[in-house]
């Protein structure tokens, strides 16, 4: 069964946008699957449609036919195609379910890291757990409009909003999730490409929606460790180890 | 056939029967004639289309040339940009598509096509337009009040829309909700009329399955509207309370829930798509059968299909909310229903194609618009499958792919469908023929640029370009040259398309001024509106010569008949 689904994992719009996460290819593959199915139908329908327009242009001396579409022999011409549409719909539903399940429903247990993403008018605040790997401890690193993650690690994100709706979107990872004030929504991602990429707010959030841009830095292990070390708050770094029992 | 002297015999004979009401200019304000009300809706809708089109011009110019003053508008600030896209959407759907397709053509066509002298509730009909007119003034006022027009997108998601400390438009956002609410009231009043009129006022002999499809479509659309708008109207009142007296229906801090609005909005919002789609599809059926001289393929299947579409359309709303924070399991259910609705819509497209088969097709201007509707709407339909599949929607949600998709549905509906209907019934509405040559120029100069606008936007959406951003230079991956070139292409195409509309207005003016009168039945069509004068008099037919119906409206090229058409009211 897995081999069946692997068939649908394929990235093809690299020229437009890079593939940056473990599940990006699943989404790209789903889009390609849909494209092939509906594209074939679309071309066939347009071909027949235009063909009929050209073929049945009015000519002197020829009358139109009288077909009421009531008998079975004629109705077949629409019942068979629409049953085919139904079959292809079911195929798309199956492939789509699997992608949706992997990304939105099946949260990997024991992630390698966790970050908190907080949307507010009109900036993203990112709370990194720091060296101890725990959020809400003194060595947390807060950044504005700059998310730092390590390549090839699975992360959970805890998404929050302080004022209005925002939407955390990283196109290279193909991830998008609305942030809702009063709720924490947990999701996951696993970056697979190092570099610096756009983070968008994809839900209109007021005057500054258009400038609510951030960047994500996907770093290899060494660079990331160096960044954590360099940015750990001074107070936390100098505090006695016993003050953060959660991290022990 | 000798035409009776219109003004004398007819007007006199009618005096005993109908309420003529006030004369002079007051006639237009207080008329209860369904045709006058239809024209009022039509011209209000067209006026609003100009405003909506101007807004599109301003924000497309800003996107193509960010930071440069737009001729005729000036510099576009981020807040103005948001207000422009918000009101472009609001106006185009609620003040253009709805009044023109549903209200104007519904009012004009239903009594004429079923052989009635007017709507059953003419005064409610008048009230409907008057409420609509007030709503138009309210929405226009909301654009110019202090703080500017509402800028929280046409979907008006709270908390942004509910709290002026977030949206910075205290007056604009409240007026926006009031305007939209009044507009709903107007269409509820109109919808009651459409449904009752079809049920009660059909000509003698006209059975349910002898009614032209476009009337069925408009009535089914009115039923959909009536069933779906209630929750949103309640939601809109809660939103006004949140804005003005500080309740917290949508405020999580006081126990409310912002997602509640999304459910109420889209429970209405998705059926709303079908509310405007069905009349357009009906118009196209009338045109295709007339100009292909062909009986409609499987009439009853069409009726059952649109009823099925209507029922299904109430169970797809959450596909707008896949990533909005709803329970992810719910997305699976709505993926299934959303993809299932492709079956009846595909069936309707197959029926169009099957109807063309074996016809004798004349490519007149209305026919071109009708065929273009099918060809272009197919693109809108198939791209919807990408968005209905929840997995792909994670990426496409709120990108330009969505934007291009729904413009490929709404443009065929509201613009192509309207031009199809307008050019087809122009002789009946105004008693003059339109210029075919100008009509074809206008057609091609609208259709080609339309595709040039939105095909690049599909590509931009696949590249990750998200919506409602006034300036993409803040996003390095979206600020690359090739993307900017695509935005410029789309903007230039829009300029061509807007310019081409002058051809249309010139054509209308020229045709209206021409001395030549249109015959009763210029297209040799079967339905009843073609059996009266062009334009029809007050009361539609001479009261002693109200039509009687003997058959369905699509009897073209019946074997054994000399004429290739067979009007519904001809006994033999």
List keywords for this structure.
heterodimer, A: 248 residues, alpha+beta, Immunoglobulin-like, 2 domains, five-stranded mixed beta sheet, 5 helices, 10 strands, 35% helix, elongated, disordered C terminus, B: 572 residues, mainly alpha, Cytochrome C Oxidase, Chain A, 17 helices, globular, disordered N terminus
What does this structure look like?
The complex is a heterodimer of chains A (248) and B (572). Chain A is α+β, with helices and mostly antiparallel strands. Chain A has 2 domains: 93 residues, no CATH class; 122 residues, Immunoglobulin-like, CATH 2.60.40. Chain A has 5 helices and 10 strands. In chain A, the strands form 2 sheets. Chain A has a 5-stranded mixed β-sheet with strand order 3-2-1-5-8, with no helix packed on it. In chain A, strands 4-10-9-6-7 form a 5-stranded mixed β-sheet. In chain A, helix 2 runs antiparallel to helix 3. Chain A is elongated and about 95 Å long. The two termini of chain A are 43 Å apart. The C terminus of chain A is likely disordered. By secondary structure, chain B is mostly helical. Chain B has one domain: Cytochrome C Oxidase, Chain A. The radius of gyration of chain B is 24 Å and the shape is globular. The N terminus of chain B is likely disordered. Classes of the chains: A alpha+beta (248), B mainly alpha (572). At the A-B interface, helix 2, helix 3, strand 7 and strand 9 of A face helix 4, helix 10, helix 11, helix 12 and helix 13 of B.
The low-confidence parts of chain B are: 1-19
How much beta of chain B, percentage-wise? under 5%
Number of helices of chain B: 17
- The assigned CATH architecture of the largest domain in chain A is Sandwich
Q: In the CATH classification, which architecture of chain B applies? A: Up-down Bundle
Give Rg of chain A in angstroms.
26 Å
Low-pLDDT windows of residues of chain A: 241-248
The largest interface is: A-B, 88 and 97 residues
Task: Output mean pLDDT of chain A.
Answer: 89
How would you classify the quaternary structure? Answer: heterodimer
Secondary-structure element string of chain A? HHHEEEEEEEEEEHH
By CATH's scheme, which homologous superfamily of chain B applies? Cytochrome c oxidase-like, subunit I domain
* Spatial strand order of the main sheet of chain A: 3-2-1-5-8
Estimate what percentage of residues of chain A fall within beta strands: 15-25%
How helical, in percent, are the residues of chain A?
A: 25-40%
What is the domain total for the residues of chain A?
2
User: What helical percentage do the residues of chain B reach?
Assistant: 55-70%
CATH third-level topology of the largest domain in chain A: Immunoglobulin-like
The CATH topology assignment of chain B is: Cytochrome C Oxidase, Chain A
């Amino acid at each position: 069964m897995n081999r069946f689904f692997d068939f649908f994992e394929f990235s093809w719009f690299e020229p437009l946008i890079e593939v940056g996460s473990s599940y990006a290819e699943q989404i790209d593959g789903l889009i390609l699957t849909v494209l092939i199915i509906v594209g074939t139908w679309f071309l066939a329908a347009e071909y027949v449609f235009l063909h009929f327009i050209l073929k049945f242009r009015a000519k002197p001396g020829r009358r139109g036919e009288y077909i009421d579409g009531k008998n079975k022999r004629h109705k077949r011409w629409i019942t068979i195609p629409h049953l085919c549409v139904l079959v292809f719909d079911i195929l798309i539903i199956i492939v789509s379910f699997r992608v949706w399940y992997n990304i939105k429903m099946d949260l990997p247990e024991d992630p390698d890291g966790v970050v908190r993403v907080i949307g507010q008018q009109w900036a993203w605040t990112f709370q990194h757990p720091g060296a101890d790997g725990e959020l809400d401890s003194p060595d947390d690193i807060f950044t504005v409009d700059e998310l730092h993650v390590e390549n090839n690690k699975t992360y959970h994100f805890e998404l929050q909003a302080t004022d209005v709706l925002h939407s955390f979107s990283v196109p290279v990872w193909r991830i998008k999730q609305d942030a809702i004030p009063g709720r924490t929504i947990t999701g996951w991602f696993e970056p697979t490409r190092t570099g610096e990429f756009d983070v968008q707010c994809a839900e209109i959030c007021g005057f500054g929606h258009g400038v609510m841009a951030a960047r994500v830095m996907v770093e290899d292990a060494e660079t990331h460790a160096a960044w954590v070390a360099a940015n750990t708050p001074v107070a936390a770094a100098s505090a006695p180890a016993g003050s953060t029992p959660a991290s022990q | 056939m000798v035409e009776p002297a219109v003004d004398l015999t007819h007007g006199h004979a009618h005096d005993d029967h109908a309420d003529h009401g006030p004369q002079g200019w007051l006639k237009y304000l207080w008329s209860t004639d369904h045709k006058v009300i239809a024209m009022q809706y039509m011209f209000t809708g067209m006026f609003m289309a100009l405003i909506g089109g101007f807004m599109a011009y301003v924000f497309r110019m800003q996107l193509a040339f960010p930071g440069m003053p737009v001729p005729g508008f000036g510099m576009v600030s981020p807040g103005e940009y948001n207000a422009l896209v918000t009101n472009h959407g609001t106006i185009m759907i609620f003040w253009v598509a709805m009044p023109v397709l549903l209200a104007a053509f519904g009012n004009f066509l239903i009594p004429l096509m079923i052989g009635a002298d007017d709507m059953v509730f003419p005064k409610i009909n008048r009230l409907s337009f008057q409420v609509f007119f007030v709503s138009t003034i309210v929405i226009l006022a909301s654009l110019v009040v202090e703080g500017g027009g509402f800028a929280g997108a046409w979907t008006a998601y709270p908390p942004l829309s509910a709290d002026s400390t977030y949206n910075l438009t205290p007056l604009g956002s409240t007026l926006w909700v009031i305007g939209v609410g009044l507009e709903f009231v107007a269409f509820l009043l109109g919808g009651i009329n459409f449904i009752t009129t079809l049920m009660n006022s059909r000509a003698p002999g006209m059975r349910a399955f002898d009614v032209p499809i476009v009337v069925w479509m408009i009535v089914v659309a009115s039923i959909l509207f009536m069933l779906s708008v209630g929750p949103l109207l309640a939601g809109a009142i809660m939103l006004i309370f949140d804005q003005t007296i500080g309740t917290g229906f949508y405020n999580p801090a006081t126990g409310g829930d912002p997602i509640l609005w999304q459910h109420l909005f889209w429970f209405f919002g998705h059926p709303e798509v079908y509310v405007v789609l069905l009349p357009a599809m009906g118009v196209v059926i009338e045109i295709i059968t007339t100009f292909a001289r062909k009986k409609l393929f499987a009439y009853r299947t069409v009726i059952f299909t649109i009823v099925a579409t209507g029922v299904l359309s109430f169970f797809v709303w959450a596909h707008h909310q896949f990533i909005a924070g709803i329970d992810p399991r719910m997305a699976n259910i709505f993926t299934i229903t959303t993809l299932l609705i492709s079956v009846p819509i595909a069936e309707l497209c197959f029926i169009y194609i099957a109807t063309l088969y074996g016809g004798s097709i004349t490519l007149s201007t209305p026919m071109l618009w009708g065929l273009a509707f099918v060809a272009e709407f197919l693109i809108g339909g198939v791209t919807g499958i990408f968005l209905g599949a929840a997995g792909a929607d994670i990426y496409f949600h709120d990108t330009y792919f969505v934007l291009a998709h729904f413009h490929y549905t709404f443009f065929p509906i509201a613009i192509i469908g309207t031009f199809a209907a307008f050019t087809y019934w122009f002789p009946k509405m105004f008693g003059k023929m339109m210029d075919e040559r100008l009509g074809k120029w206008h057609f091609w100069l609208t259709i080609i640029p339309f595709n040039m606008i939105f095909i690049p936007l599909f590509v931009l959406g696949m590249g990750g370009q998200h919506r409602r951003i006034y300036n993409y230079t803040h996003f390095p991956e979206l600020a690359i040259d090739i993307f900017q070139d695509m935005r410029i292409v789309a903007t230039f195409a829009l300029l061509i398309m807007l310019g081409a509309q002058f051809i249309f207005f010139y054509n209308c003016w020229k045709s209206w001024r021409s001395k030549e009168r249109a015959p009763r039945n210029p297209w040799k069509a079967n339905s009843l509106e073609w059996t009266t004068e062009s334009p029809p008099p007050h009361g539609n037919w001479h009261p002693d010569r109200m039509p009687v119906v003997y058959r369905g409206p699509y009897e073209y090229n019946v074997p054994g008949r000399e004429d290739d058409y067979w009007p519904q009211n001809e006994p033999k």
